[in-house]
Queue: 2 jobs
Job 1
Amino acid sequence: MDHLAVLPIILPMFCGALLLLMGPRRLQLRRRLGLLATLLQLPLAMLLMGQASAGVQVYAAGNWLPPFGIILVVDHLAALMLLVSAVLAAAAMLYAVRGSDALGAHFHALFQFQLMGINGAFLTGDLFNLFVFFEILLIASYALLLHGAGSARVRSGLHYVLLNLFGSALFLIAVGTLYGVTGTLNMADLSQRVAQLPPADVPLVGTAAMLLLVVFGLKAAVFPLYFWLPRAYAAATPPVAALFAIMTKVGIYSILRVYLQVFGETAAGPLAQLANTWLWPAGLLTMLLGSLGALAASTLNGLVAYLLLVSVGTLLAGVALHSQAALVGSLYYLVHSTWICGALFLLAGVLSDCRGRRFVGRLVPGPALPRPMLLSGLFFLAAISVIGLPPLSGFVGKLLLLRAAGTGVAAAWFYGLLLGSGLLAIVTLSRAGSTLFWRIDAAAAPGQALDRVCLLAASSLLLCSLLLVVFAEPLLGYLDATATQLLEPAAYTRQVLEGGRP
Amino acid sequence: MELLYALTLGVLTMSGVYLLLRARTFPVVVGLTLISYAVNLFLFAMGRLHTGMPPVIGQVAEHTDPLPQALVLTAIVIGFGMTAFSLVLALRARGELDNDHVDGKGGQ
């Protein structure tokens, strides 16, 4: 059997354990090991993407065949998400080794455990392990969020932890109900059972599915479950906030996986596409409220956190449109928004350092910045990409989504809100940019010197936004195959249930 | 037995939700613990309630489903760790913010 599929989970697990054993000393060695382990994820994700293009790969742990054993499934969607998280993590790690990892004791070990949880959630083929990997990534994220402490972090951390603990309880109730009714937790097997459900069991399974939607909505930060996000993300250190940009996408990934593949077209009666009626208004409202929140944000980090919310809303509305073209657009937008929000968080960190402790990311006139042309140029590029102006990837993503929306009342809402949120983002970012770069308080003491490596980390993610445009053609081909696979769950189910056989 | 079991779950969840809605960290943590008890019992019941049926093949004529028991074990371990973490965090918040309100403010 090919063991490549288990490496994205095993590698960070062992590196994390090793880093934990190394204790608080030998920072340089830990940095090197952490950076190496994170960078290794990149070729691994690319190899797996190549494998997934050839067909769905199933890794049966301990050779226990599906639907009984624990399986990892490498398909188009999982491999894509692995690559997205690997690129983001590499940039965040590059930023972190320049000093923000030294603020607390176990940053590198926690970072690896977080990666293990994220990768595991993407790869797992059954619902209970999705829960387990959610918990792994959550407990690592609790500690990473509090990394470097400070009272703002403790306060926002408390909300985050308590809400997610309650979310886990709901997740278990939903998983328990699904198991009690269908007798399986393997997602492929579950989709077959859901298709042949006796009518008496339909309401119970529907209840469990809606509970799962609440849990995933909490992770993805959908209206009305997003109130924890802006404060938590704005308080985290820049590399942690950048890495957390993928965490909301884990929720969206789960929504795609469960509601398109398990409760997809083939599901019994009212269960087919039951999430769409809720995702549509929730996505549109998240978009609107995220834009308004960004308008009111008083710090740069808070502003980026709200922009992340806008991207979540856009994605969910795109998914709820439920067509091949809309799904391709959403997946493209998912890749783009994850990387560009990560870039913005890192850039906000660089700017905050340059402005010194007194001003940090607050949007008030501050000291003159070193290398103003370079910094403002990068900020401008990031801004036009996140707003969705040509020539960067945001434009392509939004164009694909708008084209997929078609005509009619729903499209009118979508057009209005997507373009309106773009306009609000222009207003917000131009106000933030002019405050940061043009309104200089001459009396203010300058902050730290510009850190080139941190800037490199932020600009490498920006470069990815450009690469997304340059290589749009092959990427869209891959995304098209992904969308086809998501919309035709029967083929996925067959391949997973047969794929484990030697 | 089913009725008693369901009532127990209901009372545990109800008390848990009530405590969760209190704005002080200690009741909130206790509330989360009660809810996780209820969830564990619920998961266990998903293998159906039986007596005298071990989850082992070959020992008795009928055996019960072992999977919910494995799930409950995992859930207990995770819940235990999470509760410990939230307690430490609550203590930290008490020290750092000088106050046990979940928002870090509110009338003392």
Job 2
Amino acid sequence: MISDAPVLQQSSEPVESAAAPSRLSRYARPVLGLLLPATLALAWELVVWLGWSNGRLVPPPSRVFAAIADLARSGELLRHIAATLWRVGLGFAFGVVAGTLLGAISGYWSLARRLLDPTVQALRAIPSLAWVPLFILWLGIFETSKIALIAAGVFFPVYLGVMGAILSVDRKIVEVGRTFRLSGFAMIRRILLPAVLPAYVVSLRVGLGLGWMFVVAAELIGASEGLGYLLLDGQQLGKPAQILAAIVIFAILGKLTDWLIELAAAPFLRWQDAFSRTKGA
Amino acid sequence: MLALDRVSKTYPNGVEALARFSAEIGQGEIIAIIGGSGCGKSTLLRAIAGLDRASSGTVTLDSEVIASPHAKIGIIFQEPRLLPWLSVADNIGFGIADLPASERREKVARALERVGLADKARAWPRELSGGQAQRVAIARALVPQPEVLLLDEPFSALDAFTRRDLQDHLLDLWADTRPTLILVTHDVDEAVVLADRVLVMRPRPGRLFDQIEINLTRPRDRNSPLFETFKRSVLTSLDRSLDRNVPDRDATQGPGQAMWW
């Protein structure tokens, strides 16, 4: 602030040269990460192009993209993506609401924790896919059972994350709230909520990851649309390119939604003294 | 006036942390409480703050019994305990959230100016040094204008130079509104620099052992011979408080009892 101009004038050259390698590495780093998969993909493309392999079981990238383009052109792709997104979104919403509420109650109120937590932990120990037959019996083969399964998958990490975060809020910070006579709702809003937010965001991201996992399970069981249906369809009709196309789209959507959560949470977490912040530059 | 009447605290595990502590502290007085470890200094302070309930006895401020945190009583802890998700300015304004925004902004700005951190208003607590963070904590406690400010070893985690600086700064701030200050410390220098009266406590169970009036005008010169004299008398009293063979020179007893022994 004080001496912006003179500093810039005096040392514009050294600053430039010092900044150059860091700017280079900022672009170079993602490229570095892409190097391995891109090389492998190109090599395989080449192998198939040269006729060393027919590429029928492991289609080269060009065929995978062609499959995606085919699906997109017919409007099929959008329909499948919409169906899957709708299921994940709804299941995620239910799972997050239930997990947040129960997790908060268990974390805040020790009697509720003693009553509730053992049961939840016991249920958590059951592999969630074991519920599938029961959910189908109870809720039918259509949307409800699928969404219930996804919600169950999302519920547990969110519940655990919220409860653990509340339990680990620093007693000393809570005491600051007490000295300013905060109680009940004000204590939750002004002290507990901001204190648990970083851990909560992590649990949401873990929950979303599980949501994507369970949507595949749900759609493999019986669906007439959705990306999971594309997988199954590809297997039954022997179209590996279609399977890989669905997998690629799963990867893109998973990454994208995770990034959305990160993006939405970022303004609230600017205060964090994070490891990544100190290492990032 | 703050009156402590036979304040006692026995913890659930049977440890008697504080036994029948009585004292009367006038408005605007600066009290330092000093004593060996485990003498119940912090227990006493937490009871005055209303953070812990005394097992028996009462704390009254202007004839109002204190049983839970009170608007007229502020506290500063050993650690700054700033809320990491609030900016420095928002931390200072934390206790006056119910005031209208414009008034709050004005008070916060004045407090920031007063503790010399006006340029740090938008900074995060993690960006502050230890001394700066503790100054923010002081400002946060003073902004609601408490009648009594409790300080629990507030400068003990700081280096000697910063500590001196903050001691002087605290006195400076105190002069603005002259709240009652009750400072728990284990630093004899600090007690003599700041206090009108030093209460010496003795441990097991924690109780009042001795009182020493510091009749020195402010600002006090840490190197004057008189300062040394007061320091020595506090140290002597402190030594005697830790000697089991010395009987209590208990100031809480009535005049009749005092004459009796």
